[in-house]
Design brief:
This protein is mainly β. The protein has a single domain, classed as Sandwich (Jelly Rolls). It is elongated and about 95 Å long. It has a 6-stranded antiparallel sheet with strand order 1-6-2-5-3-4, with no helix packed on it. It contains 1 helix and 6 strands. The chain is 10% helix and 60% strand.
Length: 162
């Protein structure tokens, strides 16, 4: 029983030093950051009678924290003989020989947007918009179309002062 009491006293002595308030000051980091903003637009209007796919792909070099803002607008008609067209949006990160899908989405709202952040990326980011659509020549409506605006802002530390 006394061994347990001695062990408890030793543990309590060790712990009291860890929860001390002495010399507990917040770390002040005065860093200078720069930002680089890229705007990329992808768009297409399908003029083909039968369903056809089209893909847009733009690579952006990144080295830092990244803020992505994606806005889209599209219109797909309801054809009688095949499925309605669609839009797929993806962001792919490549560093060296490794590629990872950061974000992928098939929008259900014809006019919307999405924003997200990645803490630190180095390498290339591919902004990808794939669409499948057609144009019905039997009506007076325009063919399927989409517009996607990608806004990519990369924040990179220039100087760290501690």
């Amino acid at each position: 029983m006394s061994r347990i009491a001695v062990l408890m006293v030793v543990l309590m002595t060790l712990i009291t030093g860890c929860v001390s308030e002495e010399n507990a000051s917040p770390i002040q980091n005065n860093s200078t950051w720069t930002s680089e903003l890229s705007h990329v637009n992808h768009s297409n209007q399908h003029t083909n009678v039968y369903p056809m796919s089209v893909g847009n792909n733009t690579d952006v070099s990144v080295n830092g924290s990244v803020n992505f803002h994606i806005m889209w607008r599209y219109l797909y008609h309801e054809p009688m003989l095949w499925e309605k067209g669609n839009l797929n949006l993806s962001i792919l990160h490549t560093e060296g020989n490794e590629s990872v899908v950061l974000w992928s989405y098939e929008p259900t709202n014809t006019n919307s947007n999405y924003t997200f952040n990645e803490l630190w990326l180095r390498g290339n980011v591919s902004l990808i918009a794939n669409s499948e659509g057609s144009d019905d020549l039997n009506d007076d409506k325009p063919g399927d179309w989409f517009i996607v605006n990608w806004r990519v802002e990369v924040f990179t530390p220039m100087e760290v002062v501690e």
